[in-house]
Amino acid sequence: MGWWPWPGLAGIVGAVAVAAFVVLENRRRKAQGAVLLDVGLFQVPTFTWGNITALMVAVGEFALVFVLPLYLINALGLSTIATGLVLAAMAAGAFLSGALARHLAAWIGASGTVLLGLGLEVFGVLQLTAEQAPDRPLWLIVVALVIYGVGLGLASAQLTSLVLKDVPVEQSGQGSATQSTVRQLGSALGAAMAGAMLSAGMAFHSRDLTGTTAQLADAARSSAGSAIPAMRGQGVPGQVLDPVVAAFASGTRWALVSAIAALVIGFLAAFMVSKASRGDVHN
């Protein structure tokens, strides 16, 4: 039966439900009735592209936040507290840049600040992807997280104002709520995407393993890596466990590459916001 019975059916039902919602809300809008979401807002280019940007930023962020702690704990063997301290580097970068974003926006504009932030996010995740190997120094991961955090702070601080820039004041509540919903959707999609890519990457890179190593790799993949610390605790020899850890690191790279792809799409969408904003100014 494969994937068809439940995931495929759920996808079809979801797509039909979204299409029906859009048609119904559009009819109500044209009849000047009460609507949950005025789909006419998506005729505003800055609003549409801005929400795509917000979606992709959330996808990339939560893909990273989902997979990186698993890598630090399971592949590198860090404790939960140590992992939290490493991830705090991202928060520190976001804290610092968030405070500076307003001053930077006064200089290069909100769209320029978002583009700069997304560029730093892409660079930071690229650096993280390059460091996904058990023998790489931990401080390089910390530096990459600081860079990513700085970009996240810059982009997030100005993104809301950018999305709502051309939305009529009387519809700003709907516009803000739509962006919040889009970000929540992006967070769910990011975690799901990262988990799927982690599993697929592990399966691909462990396809040539045999015997006990193959069985352990399958157990690690099924548990999202949480079986690896237990294997260490049971004294599994390094020559057996090392290929499992390497496969997990490779799966992590796959997940991070998917985050990079989302952020690149977000960057392109932010560029379209900037272009639409310049067009409005010229008009």
Could you please describe the fold and organization of this structure?
The chain crosses the membrane at residues 6-24, 36-59, 71-97, 104-126, 138-164, 254-273. This protein is mostly helical and 283 residues long. The protein has two domains: 8-37; 45-279, MFS general substrate transporter like domains (Growth Hormone, Chain: A, Up-down Bundle). The chain contains eight helices and no strands. It is globular. The N and C termini lie far apart (56 Å). The mean pLDDT is 87.
Q: Find the count of extended strands (DSSP E, 2+ residues).
A: 0
Fill in the CATH topology of the largest domain.
Growth Hormone, Chain: A
Please tell me the CATH architecture of the largest domain by its name: Up-down Bundle
CATH class type of the largest domain:
Mainly Alpha
Tally the helices: 8
Give unreliable regions as ranges: none
Mean pLDDT: 87
Specify the structural class.
Answer: mainly alpha
GO molecular function, one term: transmembrane transporter activity
Domain Major facilitator superfamily (MFS) profile: 1-278
Protein name: Multidrug efflux MFS transporter
Membrane topology: Multi-pass membrane protein
Entry summary:
The protein contains eight helices and no strands.
Secondary structure: elements and pairs:
Elements: H1 4-30, H2 45-75, H3 80-130, H4 138-163, H5 172-205, H6 211-222, H7 227-233, H8 238-282
